[in-house]
Design goal:
This protein has 15 helices and nine strands. By secondary structure, it is an alpha+beta fold. β7 and β8 form a beta hairpin. The longest helix has 26 residues.
Length: 338
Amino acid sequence: MDNGNKTFIGKQLGTDLFNDKGLFVLPAMTLLNADHIRLLERHRIFLDAKDIIQLDSAAFFQIAVDDCTAAMEKVFEQVRFNRRVPVNQLRAEVLPFINEVTEKNDFYGMLSALQSKDDYTYRHNIAVGILSTLLGKWLKLEPEELSMLTIAATLHDIGKIMIPAEILTKTGPLTDKEFQYMKKHTTIGYELIRDTVGTSHMQALVALQHHERMDGSGYPFGVMGHRITDFSKIVAVADVFHAMISDRLYRKASPLYEVLKQMSDSVFGKLDPYICRVFMDKLMQSMIGNEVELTDGRVGRIILILPHDPIRPLVNIEEDFIDLSKERKLGIVRVFPQ
């Protein structure tokens, strides 16, 4: 693949493209993926910056996540049919978009695009891939490790292809028997990834362990934290976070700040404390400048995140500065987008 054209994966065309014989090749507004780049090379079309338009981040996130979600659905279908993960397709059609999205510095725009429509199963895998990649960057993983993590995170729920649709789409609580069956997606996913050429054992372990918890309260084996891989710990944080901020068939999405608070309080079973702290600190840093409503009904603005207590920031209300880490009777009810 031409390296010049390859740099435009994840970018959007600003004009219709024709080959040197005048044959129409691609329409304007196409968000370029690896297949498009190969098509351009076959027609000997080489892009430069003037062929590309700069989208505002919200529009880019929506298009990129929608395209990734559609590609993820195709990956799931192939696995269902072949019992093998199409890793090359994943690297070509999904990873470039995830990398592009995680380069942007607009967390709220990203979250909006990650909110589930009617495709939670596929969008959730993309969301966990994006959030895990961000976490990996914040944890300063090496590029090769980061790429392995992104693939592992994107495939963490691949075992669900073998779970009956009536369980996956049930609108009420699962019965004990149904929940025991649902738990099998971890071992099924492990086996699918393990048996696929081009994947690593570490990536297979993420599918197996992303529901394990540091205190041994997770599944499928209830192992303690020292036996859970770092990749699995990262994906567990991203998995819990996205599940809680998303509308589900049986539950409405929880407010972002409430989810962070519950993660801090270990409501969902014990997640890795260091990884959780890094995640919450970075997310709270992205809220600096946002207006917030406090539990007493007043509205103020976050002006400083306190490192010793990141989810209880310094808030400015008119002439007052309120340190929520000291004013323990007060809390944040909700955060308003900028």
